[in-house]
Predict the 3D structure of the following.
Amino acid sequence: MPNPLVYYFGGGQADGGREDKALLGGKGANLAEMTRIGIPVPPGFTITTEVCNLFLRDGAYPRGLEDAVHAALRRLEADTGKTFGGDDPLLLSVRSGAVVSMPGMMDTILNLGLNDATAEALARQSGNPRFAYDSYRRFVQMYGDVVLGVDAKAFEARLAAKKRARGAALDTELDADDLRELVAEFKALVRERTGRPFPDEPETQLWGAIRAVFRSWNTQRAIDYRKVNGIPDNLGTAVNVMAMVYGNMGEDSGTGVAFTRDPSTGEKRLFGEFLVNAQGEDVVAGIRTPLSIEQMAERFPDAYADLLRTQELLERHYRDMQDLEFTVERGRLYLLQTRTGKRTAQAAVRIATEMVDEGLIHEDEAVLRVDPRQLDQLLHPRLDPTAKPTLLARGLPASPGAATGRVVLTPEAAVDWAGRGEAVVLVRSETSPDDFHGMVAAQAIVTCRGGMTSHAAVVARGMGKPCVVGAHDLACDEGAGVLEAGDGVVHEGDWITVDGTSGQVFLGQVPTVAPELSEHFRRLMAWADAARTLGVRANADTPADAAKAREFGAEGIGLCRTEHMFFEGDRITPMREMILASSAEARAAALARLLPMQREDFLGILRAMDGLPVTIRLLDPPLHEFLPRTDAEIAAFARATGIDEEAVRRAVERHREANPMLGHRGCRLGISHPEITEMQVRALFEAAVAAEAEGVRVRPEVMVPLVADVRELTRQKEVIRRVAEEVFRAAGRRIDYLVGTMIELPRAALTAGEIAAEADFFSFGTNDLTQTTLGLSRDDAGSFLPMYIETGIFPDDPFQVLDRPGVGRLIEVGTREGRAARPGLKVGICGEHGGEPRSVAFFHEVGLDYVSCSPFRVPVARLAAAHAALKARKIDEAAAQNEVRRRAGAAAEAPAAVSGD
């Protein structure tokens, strides 16, 4: 039985495995699993996530931990033949490892166990003093930063000064004496900054490192990362303590990072980088620009051959693309980590479909492999190929996509400028985890140094942001607020454009074009469509939007907002004339001018959605939104219409409302001004009749907004039916149509049984239903809503992720009562929650017929609906299996039947 606090791995055996991920974290579970299957992994042990949570809760280690760690250390000494703090010194790496991968967000310490005595012993034992003091220098620098809180830049400044004094361009050009001097300088820096000497006792160092790794779970950068990626705060991190292997022992040693497939494109090829005579942080931090993994075959042919075999074995074992960290020590390969590799959306889709072709996974599993949120990356613009931009710099294409923004040189500036509504591009010499908040705020990231597996590259790919790294032509001068590029200078605030696909950075704003979807994408979405039961429609207000929605797989239009049509071109003038009309005749004249415009819009949309349902929402916003606001607009309208300017001003004032969101809008407009409803439905039915005459299959649905009482719907329905009959008689042609309502008020949801008697369908307007349920205004809540989320009052922004306990409960009640009163009632939603994966899962659970969202989110909703269906099926299958086992157990325990004559 393993110790419940510490799990050991080594010598081909391990206390745990990948099934223990919740306890050992992803890194620890995979180290144990690799040990089990014969992968060369340095021995070590994992302190569990439970210990972390207890430590963070109580501020102290649980009873028995020290004994368990000491026992694991003795076992590690026996397996390596080395002694912790002895003459043949055992050195350790101490690394974090959460259940969910959080690359670069928590802390690591390497070469732990070094002091003056063990450094000399390591120099004698290895025969390589430079290696020993390079390791010592690294340890003091890393421990001083991570554990003791000395600013890393202070160490870097002394290292840079030493290189300048020796005329060295690279760290590797410093000799053993230089490094020995640096160790002394670093220790003096620690004493100066902390008031205490650097700890020399190896066990003291170890417990300090363990404590620092646990505490790194709650650093701001880790909290920010979890918030952005939806990772719970209560998981904790494990601590992985391993025997060190050394990539910095000379020209026959090195370290690297590799992916079993290209994480940007998904191509099946080993992808990665390595450095000769280096340790792992050199690659990840981007301190030196690494060599491609193919060059490793020339430098270390035997180790490279082992790496190829290992990556093939691991990918087949885990049945997914793997992200590997490795070290070569004197020609021998060691694996330090494997984890499921982060990838772009393009790569995720390709890898999933090709693994089906390779027989590794099933189609349903392929669908579940692609996070619906990632699809946004596939649906955004790329640079216009006809553009002729001015090249600023070239680098490595770390994360695909294109974005334009103003240059900012610090993460704080990125957050500040983005908070003012500016699009920004964060440009850094290299990024570190402390830059994460600025990377979130930026549209794209550029670094002057670093490689394809540097911090910037990995984080940007995970967030789906364009990124270029290793742009050596650029130099950042934060103090001066400029970016030097060759002989030119770009100032903070200037526009640049980043093409993460090609690795190029351009001056100015470069136009973009819509993306093209691959055959891999089409195959995956076909599998998703076969799996889902929830329909997906689009919110589209123009024929162009409707065509784009159909291209993305929409099965109809769930919301066409007619008010948007009136803001186009010169239509706003007759709309304003209609609102400000002083007589029924004047209003009718204005409506007569609007009718053909509205009819033409509807005709274009019906053509685009040939054969699919189109839900037209009647006019919803309060009328004041259409009226002129500024003095200039009022004057221009008065001139265009010949109405006295002061009369216009008085009319505008009459329509002003204290709380227009709950004022004279929606069905209330149609009831007080039925001629508005008449014009709109006449335009719709005339368009439908004309489209059908052209051979278009039309399926119009009329949606009455903001109904609070069934009698409102009844009155509007009477107008709709009457006008429809007038149009059909005049045309000598009838078409089928539906009349339904938008449920966006709590009272409507609670009286859904009454409303359903008059409605052919319900569509929950979750945007307004969220506002009216929570008493929040989307326009005004921005001043405090972020604070509510940050402090945990709200788990998420309720306008982005559906509030299940409140709004969700109303949807559940409204759906159940509506269908009880009208069996077969069609129910959907048409807020932007329809394209948010967690919300879509809820709509599936409640049993809605469809969701409707913006065109570019249609693929996200399709995939999210498939995820919801497949996960529900897994739960049902597991429940059925449990029931079979329960019955079998009950039958086995039942007494045997007694037979008699």
About this structure: The chain has a mean pLDDT of 91. The CA atoms of residues 449 and 901 lie 92 Å apart.
